[in-house]
């Protein structure tokens, strides 16, 4: 069984970027999984700091309205990994999931950490590179010309343990 993980597609992150194309790709994944009656699990990050846009009392912490109708399963996390101190592994086991697909925000943090944690827990893991996004850029990391999604995708691909696809490859498979 396969499951789709939609990581941190929350107002406070989405509002910081121009990402309509990314959201469309994620929604395509959602619709494909729905049509095949496979589990779709939303992951929501909450920060404890009151001033954080991702504090549970802030509007920024909520999953974007566009995706609200799709939420059937929701996992709350407080760290970059969707597995750390959450019920995600148990939920996946209940569905008999052996293969997870990773989409969402932020590519280089929560998506990457969750992909690695999934592999470490024995799941076949597919990272859909262009169905992830980040609020950061080359200036954030003081690395001129850095394409964060491509860099993370390349690192995960070179690991030879996490499959990395772009949306076109995903749709073909």
TrEMBL record:
Keyword annotations of the record: Hydrolase
InterPro entries reported in the protein's UniProt record: Isochorismatase-like_dom, Isochorismatase-like_hydrls, Isochorismatase-like_sf
Domain (Isochorismatase-like): residue spans on this chain: 3-144
Keyword Transmembrane: no
SUPFAM superfamilies assigned: Isochorismatase-like hydrolases (SSF52499)
Family from the record: Belongs to the isochorismatase family.
Protein name: Isochorismatase family protein
Source species of the chain: Lysinibacillus louembei
